[in-house]
Inverse folding.
């Protein structure tokens, strides 16, 4: 059974940093692209970033470029999102997701990030 | 940047009725279009990938069609558990950037 378990969310002040982690199990992690998708309270879904199987290519939505960094550790079956220079607009539930056939075939339960003073 | 526009924003229907949801892309995206269902307090669930393929475990009443810029999700006969928000999602060919539509809420009439 595929499982994606996020951790690391919480309350952070504007301008601060936070690192999200995602522990993956139930599939061969090193052979799949992975993504982060977020959802602001009461709003729709927004793709944030994804990373190739071996970590050699990364892509970001324009609104987080230069501030967020996606990474992975295939030896630990883990995905990460380093978030810097956070603003209130980054407040959202962040989902760790597994990519399959150009879509998300599995979602984590989500981790809430709240940016507020 | 490809923009996805979903319509209508809200669809008010009764159980047993047919639901037709639209997703229009600002430029051709071939068949790289997926549909998701999201219920309150839950993560989304993949329904359809590559425009017309049902994901494993998805009932046959859900179907997807379209290519290029116009796509449709059809629920042939609404069950009580189908009332939810539906999102479409596209993948740009290269670079493989993604975008989601703003969602269509299917509510009980």
């Amino acid at each position: 059974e595929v499982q994606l378990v996020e951790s690391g969310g919480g309350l952070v002040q504007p301008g601060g940093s936070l690192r999200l982690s995602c522990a993956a199990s139930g599939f061969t992690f090193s052979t799949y692209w992975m993504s982060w998708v977020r959802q602001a309270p009461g709003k729709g879904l927004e793709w944030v970033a994804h990373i190739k199987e071996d970590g050699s290519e990364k892509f970001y939505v324009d609104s987080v470029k230069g501030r967020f960094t996606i990474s992975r550790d295939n030896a630990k079956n883990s995905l990460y999102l380093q978030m810097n220079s956070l603003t209130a607009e980054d407040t959202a539930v962040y989902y760790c997701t597994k990519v399959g056939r150009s879509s998300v075939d599995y979602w984590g339960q989500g981790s809430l990030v709240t940016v507020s003073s | 940047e490809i923009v996805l526009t979903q319509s209508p924003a809200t669809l008010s229907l009764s159980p047993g009725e047919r639901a037709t949801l639209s997703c229009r892309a600002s430029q051709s995206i071939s068949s790289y279009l997926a549909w998701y269902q999201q219920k309150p307090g839950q993560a989304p669930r993949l329904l359809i990938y590559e425009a017309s393929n049902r994901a494993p475990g998805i009932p046959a009443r859900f179907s997807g069609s379209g290519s290029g810029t116009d796509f449709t999700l059809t629920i042939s006969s609404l069950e009580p558990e189908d009332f939810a928000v539906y999102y479409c999602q596209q993948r740009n060919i290269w670079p493989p950037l993604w975008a989601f539509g703003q969602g269509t809420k299917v509510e009980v009439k």
Q: What stands out?
A: The radius of gyration of chain B is 13 Å.
